[in-house]
Amino acid sequence: MSRGMAVKKLLLESSTAAFWAGVEIHNKPHISYRYQTTVILVLNAWELLLKAYAYTKIGKQGIYEKNKKGGKKHTKSFTTILESVEKEVSVKNREFKAVCENLRMLDEYRNQYIHFADKKLDPIIFMLISKAVTNYNFYITQWFNLKIAGNKDLIILPIGIKLPFHPTQFLKQNYDGKHNEFIDEINQIARDLHQKGIEESLFFDFSINLSKSPLKNADLVAAIDENNPNAIPVALSDEEFQKSYSLSYADLIKEIKKKDPDIKVNEEFFEAKKEVEKDGKLCYIRYLDPTTKSSTSRKKYYSLKAIDTIIEKIRELKKNMPNR
Prior knowledge:
mainly alpha, about 5% strand
């Protein structure tokens, strides 16, 4: 076996070993540090796969570089090799840019957020890993004709476990009021890819309209952007619904009057309420028959934040129209 073939073989064997270690650790029913460990192993698998590709297409100069100080050679970093392969592959396959963005977000998590062990990010990391795993299986087959799955299943969703979040609600920053720059960045990347005409998504979503497969950036952008006429309908579980939208119309009026007894249910109130009802984070409409969505069979529910929002809007209306 030539040295070149030996190097490629070693890279691919190490890559697939890291890949399966990541999948197996993720799928253990009881394990601490699950996502942090899985991300490290899956990214290591991808780094070695990218280096095997660069070595095959470019040669050893594709994976080695000299130290700036000592002059000794060392293999290129993950970010450098990813950028190099992205330039090579994206010429003929623009969708590969989404694959690279998925890996960059996992790398950012590994380098910055992993040290805080932030449980709030587990849902988004789960979806990013799921996409990275299936992308890996696709490209190792396409580039090297290696069908690593064989009779094994690449499903990494735990059987019988109910997800403790709704993905689109999480991405829309409506998950217990939590906010995170990492999620904001993911949302913006999805918008940028969509604007460039790239519909390969950054991750899998196991609950956004499962009949739409695979998930496209157009679907994702429609789901996370407010007031979008193409938004994907989101079905909340009873538990999620009660947690996010706990106020009926009567409850809403009662709570508003508690905070400001001077507010009256008049024209200003109804105008402010109408504006609030346009915001899916503040108002949710439930239908007795979701298939027909008849106006006679619907009921509106409001979040706690709707109370202060309506009060503020009424005060603005009175301020701007004193003689009204």
